[in-house]
Specification:
- This protein is an alpha/beta fold.
- The chain contains nine helices and eleven strands.
- It has a five-stranded parallel beta sheet, with helices on both faces.
Length: 242
């Protein structure tokens, strides 16, 4: 199934070559020039990744990002903007973006980031080859005869399951979960998580970590996972048996 990208850009001079470049990569692509049509199209389903300009005519692109995440969109979001300031970058990541590219940018760099994000997301709809069927975890990973539900993280496949149900995670949510699971029962400091999941040279706000952990915790609760993601105040986070 081809990867489907949605480009949200009101400037025709930028959108036209961007659409052509994405199509040459073999992706399906749609383009809209305003925020509300983007929200509506994402809500309709089938979008794997959003290339999102911030300077839209009807609303700020940050509000688009916030809305689609609140509505449950789990695909990748790359913000494209002339706002290169650190504050704007941090706010964009805090409201759910996965990456941020300041204009002017090279098409080759953008496409490289898109490929990297799709690899990290490792979504079945994106990475499966034609004719492939996503493989469910082995029977031992599902509910047992006693009604117990197991929790499983596959780091190589970048997938996680509660029983026989796969959790839908963003790239950053999976990275945080995998690191916490690797050290299950121990406290992982905020500094370690920021260095290993984001960048050891990251000097921006760590609120993006709290936002990611909050979404991840809710998904574990909604999925009735038999584990608990606890905050250790002033230190970090701990994943342990629920």
């Amino acid at each position: 199934m081809p990867v489907r990208l949605l480009i949200v850009e009101d400037d025709d001079a930028i959108a036209a070559p961007l659409v052509r470049a994405v199509q040459r990569e073999g992706y399906d692509v749609d383009r809209v020039a305003a925020g509300q049509p983007a929200i509506d199209q994402v809500a309709a389903g089938g979008v794997d990744l959003l290339l999102l300009d911030l300077g839209l005519p009807d609303m700020d692109g940050l509000d688009v990002c916030r809305r689609v995440r609140a509505d449950g969109f789990e695909g990748g979001i790359v913000i494209l903007t002339a706002r290169a300031g650190e504050l704007d970058r941090v706010v964009g990541l805090d409201v759910g973006a996965d990456d941020y590219l300041a204009k002017p940018f090279s098409l080759s760099e953008l496409l490289a980031r898109v490929r990297a994000l799709l690899r990290r997301s490792h979504r079945p709809a994106v990475v499966a080859q034609p004719g492939d069927v996503p493989v469910a975890p082995e029977a031992t990973a599902g509910p047992s005869a006693t009604g117990d539900v197991s929790f499983r993280v596959d780091r190589d496949a970048r997938r996680a399951w509660v029983g026989g149900t796969e959790l839908s995670l963003t790239a950053k949510e999976f990275d945080v979960l995998a690191l916490l699971d690797e050290r299950r029962g121990a406290v992982v400091t905020r500094e370690d998580l920021m260095a290993q999941v984001w960048d050891e040279n990251w000097f921006g706000s760590t609120k993006t970590l709290d936002t990611t952990v909050g979404r991840l915790r809710q998904k574990l609760v909604d999925g009735s996972a038999p584990i608990r993601l606890d905050t250790v105040r002033g230190v970090g986070f701990r994943l342990e048996e629920g």
